[in-house]
Amino acid sequence: MPSYKLQRVTRDVERELTVILQKIKDPRVKDSLVNIVNVDLSNDYSHCKIYISSIKGLETSKIAAQGLKSASGYIKRELSNSVKLRQMPNLIFVPTDSIEYSANISKMLEDLSK
């Protein structure tokens, strides 16, 4: 069971990452409409997995993850300015297709109701 502090820091990291992603000018990220689905911070704050998804699909999410990986230094610096931790975690961007999947389910439910 994660501690209260870990949950609070994870929420803070997720909130700040959302703001930082809007500032990134890399076309791989900016043009792909990337959203943060989940943030998983390790107990010792050394690793942070950030699950990202794009409405355009999994391939677009993979391309955006490459762009975010190349901008990870900038992201870590901006994150350290807003979230005060002793050591910034290593950022690992994991592409998912959860937004596309949920859009397909929503479409199927609408078709069933008609």
Give me a quick take on this structure.
With 114 residues, the protein is an alpha+beta fold.
Q: Report the principal-axis shape.
A: globular
Number of beta strands: 3
Question: H/E element string?
Answer: HHEEHHEH
Rg from Cα: 16 Å
**Which ranges are low-confidence, i.e. pLDDT below 50, for 5 or more consecutive residues?**
none
Mean pLDDT: 89
Q: Share of helix among residues? A: 55-70%
The CA-CA distance between the termini, in Å, is 43 Å
- Which structural class matches the secondary elements? alpha+beta
Largest sheet: 3 strands, mixed
> Strands across the major sheet, in which order?
1-2-3
In terms of DSSP E residues, the strand content is 15-25%
Oligomer status: single chain
- Count of DSSP H/I helices: 5
Give structural notes.
The chain is of the alpha+beta class. It has five helices and three strands. The chain has helices at residues 4-23, 27-30, 58-70, 72-82, 98-113, and strands at 34-41, 47-54, 90-96. The chain has a three-stranded mixed β-sheet with strand order 1-2-3. A hairpin with a 5-residue loop joins strand 1 (34-41) and strand 2. Helix 1 (4-23) crosses helix 4. The N and C termini lie far apart (43 Å). The model has no long low-confidence stretch (mean pLDDT 89).
What's the layout of helices and strands?
Blueprint: H1 4-23, H2 27-30, E1 34-41, E2 47-54, H3 58-70, H4 72-82, E3 90-96, H5 98-113
Parallel strand pairs: 2-3
Antiparallel strand pairs: 1-2
Helix pairs in contact: 1-4
